Amino acid sequence: MFSNLLSLVIWVPIIAGVLVLATGDDRRAPLARWIALAGSALGFAASLPLFTAFDTLNGGMQFVEFAPWISALNINYHLGVDGLSMLFVVLNSFITMLVVIAGWQVIEQRVAQYMAAFLVMSGLINGAFAALDAILFYVFFEAMLIPMYLIIGVWGGPRRVYASIKFFLYTLLGSLLMLVALIWLYFAAGKSFSIEAFQDIAQIPLTVQILLFIAFFMSFAVKVPMWPVHTWLPDAHVEAPTGGSMVLAAITLKIGAYGFLRFVLPIVPDAARELAPIVVALSLVAVVYIGLVALVQTDMKKLVAYSSISHMGFVTLGLFLFTGSELNVWAVEGAIVQMVSHGFVSAAMFFCIGVMYDRVHSRNIADYGGVANRMPIFAAFMVLFAMANSGLPATSGFVGEFMVIMGALQVNFWVAALASLTLIFGAAYTLWMVKRTIFGEVANHHVDELTDVNKREFLVLAVLAIAVLGMGLYPQMFVDKMHLAVNDLIAHVAQSKL
Amino acid sequence: MNWADLNLMPALPELFLLGALSFILVFDLFVPDEKRGVTYVLSLLTVALCAVLQVATFEPFAVTTFSGMFVDDPVADIIKVAMYGATAATLVYSRQYVADNGMFRGEYFTLSLFALLGMNVMVSSANFVTLYIGLELLSLALYALIALKRDSAAGTEAAMKYFVLGALASGMLLYGMSMVYGATGSLDIHVIATGISRPETNIVLLVFGLVFLVAGLAFKLGAVPFHMWVPDVYQGAPLAVTLMLGAAPKLAAFVFVIRILAQGLGELAAQWQGMLVLIAALSMLIGNLAAVAQTNIRRMLAYSTISHMGFLLLGVLAGNEQGYASAMFYALTYVLMSLAAFGVLLALSRAGFECDKVDDLKGLNARSSWYAFLMLLVMFSMAGIPPLAGFYAKFAVLRAVVDLPVLDFGFFAGSPVYLAVFAVLMSLVGAFYYLRVVKVMYFDGSQTDAPIVVRGDMKLLLSVNALALLVIGLLPERLVELCIDAMRQSLASF
Predict the structure, then answer these.
(1) Is the Cβ pair B428, A164 closer than 8 Å?
(2) What's the whole-number mean pLDDT along residues B28-56?
(3) Which positions fall inside the NADH:quinone oxidoreductase/Mrp antiporter transmembrane domain (chain B) (predicted)?
(4) Minimal Cβ distance to B480: which of A72, A146, A164
(5) Helix, strand or coil, per DSSP, at residue B413
(6) Is the pLDDT of residue B419 over 80?
(7) Region class of A133: left (phi > 0), else alpha (psi between -120 and 50), else beta
(8) Shortest CA distance to B333 belongs to which of B372, B377, B291?
C-alpha cells in the first residue's frame, strides 16, 4: 500500500503545478486556485501515512523506492526517509497547503503561475528530503532555486530584483562547490552516488575531509543561513510575498540544517569534530548578535527574518556539540525539534504579518498600534505565536531551545550560558514588537479601519496554533520518531575515518 | 582506385544531399518569387530524407570508403542526424525572418545545404584532405550567408571579419597538417595515429604542427584566444544566419577536434592536454566575464558560446572515452540550447524590428507566457541548473575531469579537482547573466504590446526544441548512453 508513497508526495504537487499552469491567464484564476488547493491537499494526504505508519523501532530508511535512473553514471532514483527526514516531508506538505490558502485572495496577478511555483517547489523540497542518491538530492536541491527565484522576483516587494538575484547566486555558489565534492566522493565510494555509500567510506584523510567539509559547509551554511553568510535572507524575506516568506522560513532553511545531518556529520565526521568550535562560535554569534540586530528592526518582516536566523543558530549549535567524539543526543534531538517547531512558528509569524500587510500595506512597526482593539481574534493568535517565538513553555518553541541548552550544559557551561541569552533577546524583540503593534491605543486611521480575520485566515491561524500547542504540550510524539535515527547518526559520527 | 570495388553506401546521405541540392540550385532558377515556398519545402524534404538515409544505413562500427578518405562511424552518424535536425530547425525558425528581410531567395537555401554538406564531409573524414575540403565548403557557404543581406553594413563587416580570420585559421590548420605530414609521411588519420609511436618519427616537428592544429581548431570552435570573431559575427550577421552559425557548425567542429586530436594525435595527448587546459580555462574566464557586461543579447550569447566551448574542451582534454563522450553530450545539448535561444529571438523579431537587446525581452512573460517559459528553460539550462539538460552536460564533463590522475602541465600542476572548482566558479559567473535574461522577461514591465506572430510549424518545433531540454534533463539516460556507446565504438575501430 505504501510502496510509492514518497513518489506520490513528490510528484503529486509537481503534476498539480503543471495542471495549474495549464489553466493559463488570470481569467481562469478561480480554477487555478482550486486545482492548487486540491493538489496540495492530496500531497499532504499522501504525506500523512509517512507519519502514522512510520516504524519508530526501525532506525533505517523506510518507504524505500529504488529504480535505476542514469545507469551509465550509476545514478539512481533512490528514495527513503528515516527519523531525520520524515518530519520535514510532512511539515513541508502541510505548510504548502497553508501557503495556497494564504495566497487565495491576496494574489491577484498571475495566479496560476504563483500557485504553480509553490506546488512545484513543494514537490522539489520533498524530493530533497527523501533523496538517498546524492545526485538526485542535488537535482532537487538546485531545481528549487528556479521557482523560488521567480516567487521572490515576480510577486515580491520593491527591491525584489536585487533580493532574488542575491538569493540565487548566494545559494548557487555553495551548491556548485558541493557538486564537485559529490563527484569526488563518487570515486572515493567506488563509483556510487548513494549517500549511504558516501557515509560508509572507511577512510578519508583529514585534509581532504576539511576540504569536503568546506564545500558542503558553503552550500548548507548559506541555506541555513549562518552568520556571516546570512545577508541574503532579510532581503529575500522582506521582498518575498507572504507565501514565499512562509515557505522560505519554514522549509527551505531546514534543508541547510538537514544537509548537515545527512551529509556533513556522517561523511566527514573528523573534520566536523575538528571544526566544530568554529561552527559553534558562528552559531553563537547568530544567536546573540543577530538577536540584538532583530531588536532594532523597524520592519516587522525583517525582524522575524532576523529572528529566524537567530533561531537557526540554535539548530546549528545543537548539531555540532561534541563531547570527545560523541555528539550530544539532547542537543541533536533538540535541534531537530527546533527545526520543526520553527517551521510552524515562523510560518505563523509571517502569515500574521501578511494579514496586517494585506490590510494596511505597510510592514513598518511604527504604522501600527492598538491593532487588538479592532482585530481581537487576530491579536489573540498573534500573541500566542509571539510567545512561541520567544520560547514560552507549553509552546513548541520552548522544547527545542530547552533541549539544546540542556545539551550545551553537558558540553560546556559558557556555551550554554551564551545560548540561553536567546531566551531574553527572543522575548525582548518579539514581545516588544507585539507591544508596539498589537497593544496600546489605536494609532492611526488605518488601524482604525481594520477588520478582523476572515474565515480563510482564521483557518490557517487555527491550524498553526494547534500545531504549535500540540508540539509544545506533547513533544514526545515527534521525538519518538527521530530517536533511533539520531542514535544511529551519533554512533556513526563517533567512528573516526582517519 | 578500382571503381568496381567502390562502396558508396557509407556516403549515401552525402551523395543524395549533393544531388538534391544541385537539383534545387537549378530548379530554383525557374521558380518565381511568389512561389519560393516550394524551394523551402524541397530543402526541408532533402534534409529529412538525408536523416532517413542516415538512420537506414546505420552500422554500429566504422566503415571506410573512397580509399580510406571517408569514414562512417557511429559518432558521425549521431552527429549528422543532429546536424540534419539543427539545419531543419534553422530553416523553419528563420523562414519568416528571411522573408521579412528580403533574403527569401534560392541562395539562402542552397548555401545552407552546401554548409550542411561541408559539415557532413568534415564529420566523416578520415583524412586531413577531406577534413580540409569539408571545412572550406562549410566556411565558404557561411561567408556568403553572413553577407547575404547585401545592403547591411554590419553583415558585410561581419562577413569580412569572419572571412579574413577564417582564412588565417585555415592557413594555420594547413600549416599544421603539413608538418604532421612531414613527420609521419601521411595525411591519413589512421596512419598518422600509428606513425607517431614509430621511433624514427620526429616528435618535435609533430608537436610544432600540433600547436598550429590546436590554434586552428580553437578558432573554428571560437575558443579564447582565437575568439575575437565570435561576438562580432554573431552580432553582425542576419539573425537567421547567427542561428545557423551557433548550431550545427559547433557539432562539426567538435567532431573535427575528436578526429584530429583524439583519433589522429591521441598519442600526443600529454602535449595537447596542456594547451587545451589553457584554452578551456581562458575561454570560460573571458567568455563568462565578458558576457556579464553585454547589453546586446546576441553578443551576450556569443560570449556565452565561448564559455560553453571552454567547458566542452574540458571534456575533450580528459583524453579518454568518458571525457570525449561527455564532450559529445555537451555539444549536442548545447546545440539544442543555442537553437532554442535564437529561435525565441527570431520569434520575437518581426519586419523592421530585430530582437537585439537584452531589454527587448522586457516583460515577455506578460506578452506571451509560453515563449517566456521556453526562454526560461533555455537560460536555466545554459546556466546548468538541474533538472535541465545543461546540468547533465556540465556534470558529465566535471565527472570526467575529477576522474583524471594528478595533472602536471608545467604551468599548472595539481589535482584535477581544482580545475573542476574553477569551472564551477565560472558557471556561477555565467548564472548571473542568464538570470538577468529571466529577470527582464519575468520581473520587468513590457515596453511594447506588439503581438507576437509566429507560424504554427515554428511554434511547434520551437516548443519541442525547448521542452526537449527538460525531457533530456529528467530522463538523460538514453542520450548519455548513446554518446558513450558511439564514442566507444568509434574509438575502438581505430
Answers:
(1) no
(2) 91
(3) 125-404
(4) A72
(5) strand
(6) yes
(7) beta
(8) B377
Q: Do B369 and A113 touch (CB under 8 A)?
A: yes
List, for chain A, all residue ranges whose pLDDT scores fall below the cut of 50. none
How far, in Å, CA of B168 to CA of B226, rounded?
11
Please indicate if any CB of chain A lies within 8 Å of the CB of B395: yes
Average pLDDT estimate for B147-176: 90
Helix (H) or strand (E) holding A314: helix A300-319
What integer is the mean pLDDT of B323-334? 94
Please name the residue of chain B whose CA is at the shortest distance from the CA of residue A212: B417
Range of the domain at B412: 3-492
Mutate to test the interface with A, among B380, B381, B385, B472 (most CBs of A within 10 A): B385
Tens of pLDDT, residue by residue over B345-369, are 998 887 678 888 888 888 888 888 8
Q: Print the domain residue range for A482.
A: 230-497
| Total count of domains within chain B | 1
User: Which segment of A441-450, B65-74, B399-408 scores lowest on mean pLDDT?
Assistant: A441-450
Exposure class string for B422-440: b at 16+ Cβ within 10 A, else e: bbbbbbbbbbbbbbbbbbb
Residue A61, C-beta contacts closer than 8 angstroms, at least 6 positions apart? A80, A81, A82, A132
Q: Mutate which of B333, B376, B442, B487 to disrupt the A interface (most A C-beta within 10 Å)?
A: B442
Place of cell 504554427: B456
Full DSSP string of A146-215: HHHHHHHHHH--TTHHHHHHHHHHHHHHHHHHHHHHHHHHHHHTTS--BHHHHHT-----HHHHHHHHHH
Count of domains for chain A = 1
- Which residues in A lie closer than 8 A to residue B425 (C-beta atoms)? 176
Beta carbons within 8 Å of A86's beta carbon, 6+ residues apart: A50, A51, A54, A62, A481
Q: Is residue A422 assigned to a domain?
A: yes
B375 in Cβ contact with B360 (< 8 Å): no
The reply to whether B16 touches chain A by the CB within 8 Å rule is: no
Residue B131 pLDDT level (bands cut at 50, 70, 90): very high
Chain A residue numbers touching B391 (CB-CB < 8 A): 139, 142
Residue B445 to residue B190: CA distance in whole angstroms: 59
Confidence of residue B19 (pLDDT cuts 50, 70, 90): very high
Q: What's the confidence (pLDDT) of residue B2?
A: 63
* Residue-wise pLDDT tens digits, A47-99: 888 888 888 887 778 888 888 888 888 888 988 888 888 888 988 898 888 88
Q: Does B292 touch chain A (CB under 8 A)?
A: no
In a domain, A279, yes or no: yes
Q: Which residues of A touch B419 (CB under 8 A)?
A: none
B387: preceding bond cis by omega (within 30 degrees): yes
Contact B435 A169 (CB under 8 A): yes
Q: What is the pLDDT of residue B253?
A: 92
Q: What is the ipTM of this complex?
A: 0.89
Does residue A81 sit within a domain?
no
More confidently predicted of B102 and B14: B14
Chain A residues within 8 A of B417 when measuring between CB atoms: 180, 184
For the segment B42-53, the average pLDDT, to the nearest whole number, is: 94
How many residue pairs bridge chain A and chain B with CB atoms within 8 Å of each other?
87
Question: A153, B477: Cβ pair inside 8 Å?
Answer: no
Question: What residues 459-488 of chain B have any CB closer than 8 A to a CB of chain A?
Answer: 476-477, 480-481, 484
Nearest to B385 among A70, A146, A161 (CB): A146
Question: Which pLDDT score is estimated for B408?
Answer: 78
CB contact under 8 A, A153 and B439: yes
Cα separation, B241 vs B145, in Å, equals 7
Choose the closest CB to B399 out of A139, A149, A183.
A183
Torsion of CA A18, B451, B237, B173, to 10 degrees: 10
Residue A150 lies in a domain: no
